[in-house]
Amino acid sequence: MRHLFINRGCIICPTLHFDKESLDFGTTALGFSTRQDVYLHNLALIPVAFTLTVLNDGNEVALTHEEFARSHTKPSFPNNPREFEVSPEEGVVASNDSMRIKVIYTANIARVGHTMIQVDMWDSGSHPVLLPITFCGKVTPLTIVPQDITVRFCFLNYPYSRSIDITNNSDIDGYFYFIQQQVTEDVTMICSFSKYQGYVKSHKSSPIDVTIMMKDLGIYTLTLK
């Protein structure tokens, strides 16, 4: 006698889920970083391996304000920066457990952008989980107050001191850098600063002393940049 045994069921692939629907990094000054955390949840009864990728991100190391500040020769922003750092980029979430994912956005391009974090599971690109990301990189608008420094009458080879403020009226922190003047025999006006670079917090000012010395007769103008 034969017995027929029929086993019925539904095979599903355990997946991971984020605890947030999206990440919004707001506005970040170029060279500065903003961090957010998100959790990956595994509600399945077995561990799930994953790999994280930020879609359409660059492949060059992003430039930070710390690196710019300590560099003697000032570097430029890369053409194709990798602006997002995800840690860990891969791992295994145990059954009925969660794992915290750290996402750091380092702005290197002035733009408003949208991208996604893609979660691939089981070493397969099928059925990925996506987390939308919104971000904005912006150059901090700094102003010099006063905009003009006038020394109406002065002696040759005598230093005159004036004060200026680097003002940041925006909602993001900023960084300033003055290009140091190259003094040669042909230079008729020498200008030096008490500091050539520094940080200016949001809605704050940074005072700087300026020393000016004339080397020749005449009326001259020096543009600060």
Automatic annotation (TrEMBL):
Q: Say which domain of life the source belongs to.
A: Eukaryota
Which InterPro entries does UniProt cross-reference here? Hydin-like, Ig-like_fold
GO CC entries: axoneme
Q: What does the record list as GO biological process? A: axonemal central apparatus assembly; cilium movement
Query: Could you tell me which Gene3D superfamilies the record lists for this protein?
Result: Immunoglobulins (2.60.40.10)
PANTHER family (UniProt xref): DLEC1 DELETED IN LUNG AND ESOPHAGEAL CANCER 1, HYDROCEPHALUS-INDUCING PROTEIN HOMOLOG
Identification of the protein by name: Hydrocephalus-inducing protein homolog
Q: Which organism is it from?
A: Apis mellifera (Honeybee)
Gene expressing this chain = LOC113219011
